[in-house]
Specification:
392 residues, alpha/beta, Aspartate Aminotransferase, domain 2, Aspartate Aminotransferase, domain 1, 2 domains, 7-stranded mixed sheet, 12 helices
């Protein structure tokens, strides 16, 4: 099997699995207990928190959550915002930002959706024009989960803080953290979302970076864990597996980038031989994601054809409904049949150039077959249309 859907989820790494087993079977104690074993576990998750924070170069804290989605919801509903103030997001934010923000819109907040370019990158001028003194929260993803576009977060934060230093700036780093160098001190964001299963940890663990001095409110109440912001017994195996995975990724970021870029470049070169394809990723996008759109072959059709050959890809975000998928097409300016021909290939260190060659051979054969069907159907429709005209 060739697995080219790593933006949806990654395989757990061996060090993450080892840590999870250790803290699920040997050091399984509840970190909220006051006896020595529980306190030792609490110390371990504190050290894990510090190692993740160090990997982010952040001055603040990490709040463990169950996912990136929960972290994003905590940003939207837990931050202090004046009623009816402005909230700015990008046109292709993940549903876990877009949908909660829409709830606030229905409650009277002034929500502005900033447009993106053809690759999914936020347009700086439009963003600047959207900022007002009444803006309370900005949420712009670091790396676009559909195209790999890398937003200029440092510039965007600077523009926002120039208007009002009290504007809160959040970035969803689920597709960035572990795959590129992230320095939160340099970016100057107030809040930053991370997700375990995007970097070789398990599903069910994520985190929210909260800048030092910033207070946010909990969405639920209980035993007071996670500084009272996210109470419930900590997912210790998930946390320790996350820390182990982050350590693996941090130590090999540059080597991973070099390997993945070679694979992405090979794929892109192959796609460029098909004139009808739109390549929605460029040299400035993350090499981990390559998106293309076809006007002749629907994304779902190609996805299932490749699946039958043992190749797994996506037609967009794994969390997207049809409505959200249409939103992605709209934001990228896709028109006509291109709207339905989007596929996403997302890579990891486990992939190889040989896999890219096998993929391209299989893809091109399927493309020729399916696009030929479309050409024959159009020819037949034209023939029937002309025949009908003559009969009239």
């Amino acid at each position: 099997m060739i697995y080219f859907d790593n933006a949806a989820t990654t395989r757990c790494g061996k060090h993450a699995i080892s840590a999870m087993i250790k803290y699920a079977t040997e050091f399984f104690h509840n970190p909220s207990t006051t006896y020595a074993q529980g306190m030792a576990v609490k110390n371990e998750i504190t050290r894990a928190r510090e190692s993740i924070l160090n990997a982010l170069s952040g001055e603040g804290n990490i709040i463990y959550t169950s996912s990136g989605t929960e972290a994003n919801n905590l940003v939207v509903f837990g931050t202090k915002k004046l009623k009816e103030s402005r909230i700015i997001i990008s046109a292709n934010e993940h549903a876990s930002i877009a949908l909660p923000v829409n709830v606030l819109k229905q409650k009277g907040f002034d929500v502005v959706v900033c447009p993106v370019d053809e690759y999914g990158k936020v347009k700086l001028n439009e963003f600047k024009n959207a900022l007002t003194k009444n803006t309370s929260l900005v949420s712009i993803m670091h790396v676009n989960n559909n195209t790999g576009a890398i937003n200029e977060i440092e510039k965007l934060v600077h523009l926002a803080k120039e208007v009002d230093s009290d504007i809160l700036f959040h970035s969803d780093g689920s597709q960035a953290f572990g795959k590129m160098h992230v320095n939160l001190k340099k970016l100057n964001v107030d809040l930053y979302t991370i997700s375990g299963h995007k970097v070789g940890a398990s599903k069910g663990i994520g985190g929210l970076f909260v800048k030092r001095g910033l207070n946010i409110s909990p969405m639920m109440f209980g035993g007071g864990q996670e500084f009272g912001i996210r109470p419930s017994t900590e997912n210790v195996p998930g946390i320790m597996g996350f820390a182990a995975a982050v350590n693996d990724f941090q130590n090999t970021i540059d080597a991973r980038l070099t390997r993945v870029k070679a694979i992405r470049d090979r794929l892109e070169k192959g796609f460029r031989h098909i004139r009808e394809l739109k390549i929605l990723s460029n040299d400035d996008t993350s090499p981990y994601i390559l998106a293309v759109a076809s006007q002749k072959v629907r994304g779902e059709l190609m996805q299932h054809a490749l699946e039958r050959k043992g190749i797994l890809i996506a037609t967009g975000s794994a969390c997207s409904s049809n409505k959200m998928s249409n939103k992605v097409a709209d934001s990228l300016g896709l028109i006509g049949n291109y709207r339905y021909g989007l596929i996403r290939i997302s890579l990891s260190i486990e992939n190889s150039v040989d896999e890219s060659r096998e993929f391209l051979d299989t893809y091109i054969k399927a493309y020729k077959e399916f696009s030929g069907y479309g050409d024959r159907e159009r020819t037949e429709r034209d023939r029937r249309s002309k025949s009908g005209s003559r009969e009239l």
